[in-house]
């Protein structure tokens, strides 16, 4: 029975860590950034201060609660349709036109005491300099914007009034509508799709437990050889 103790202990560690994995996971409430250049929304690979939209492209911003960056359910609810947004805006010399979609999300995703400014997504055609960024396109049509010290986009058109990418505890009252926000502002080009502070994944915990189990098994084998 004594020989089995290390293995039993390791198996106990494994079960404990795996059980703890979901409890450590968090959802986040934040603004996400989407590239609609191909006519469909795709989670942007660059932050808005680094992305330089081409003339005739569409870019979207969505406020929601999500656990995973790029969650499809958190895409802007308006189509990535440049023509629908900018079709009535004539081209101007020395300017490019960019369709901007701002989706303030669902009431369930709003911070306590706040409501989205409007139910439907807002669309606007930004006319900006040829080398302007997506952040500049957003600023042209949806001020005021708010960023935190880490250049995370915290508010669009003043919404929300407070908070910035805060983690939300999992539980029955947690909003289920996912969101992906982009953490890139004019200060730098960082794009933090997953806000800092998330706990280790269940896969990582399982890996740690597996290493612990192997170490315990090796110790048991070593002791067994010495007793022969």
From TrEMBL:
Residues 166-198 are annotated as: Disordered. The keyword Zinc-finger does not apply. It comes from the Bacteria. The chain crosses the membrane at residues 202-220. Residues 171-198 have a biased composition (Low complexity). InterPro entries: GPS-CTERM, SCO2322-like. Keywords: Membrane, Transmembrane, Transmembrane helix. This is SCO2322 family protein. It comes from Streptomyces goshikiensis.
């Amino acid at each position: 029975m004594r020989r089995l103790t290390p293995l039993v202990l390791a198996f106990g560690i494994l079960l404990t860590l795996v059980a703890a994995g979901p409890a450590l996971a968090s959802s986040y409430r934040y603004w996400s950034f989407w590239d609609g250049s191909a006519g469909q929304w795709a989670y942007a690979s660059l932050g808005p201060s680094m992305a330089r939209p081409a003339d005739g492209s569409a870019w979207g911003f969505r406020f929601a609660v999500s656990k995973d960056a790029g969650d499809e359910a958190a895409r802007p609810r308006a189509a990535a349709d440049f023509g629908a947004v900018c079709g009535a805006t004539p081209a101007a010399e020395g300017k490019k036109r960019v369709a901007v979609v701002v989706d303030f999300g669902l009431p369930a995703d709003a911070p306590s005491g706040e409501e989205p400014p409007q139910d439907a997504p807002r669309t606007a055609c930004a006319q900006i300099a040829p080398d302007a960024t997506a952040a500049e396109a957003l600023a042209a049509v949806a001020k005021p914007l708010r960023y935190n010290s880490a250049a995370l986009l915290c508010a669009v058109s003043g919404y929300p009034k407070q908070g910035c990418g805060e983690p939300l505890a999992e539980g029955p009252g947690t909003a289920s509508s996912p969101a992906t926000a982009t953490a890139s502002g004019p200060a730098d080009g960082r794009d933090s799709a997953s806000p800092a502070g998330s706990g280790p994944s269940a896969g990582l915990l399982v890996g740690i437990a597996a290493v612990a189990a192997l170490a315990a098994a090796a110790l048991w084998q070593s002791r067994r050889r010495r007793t022969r």
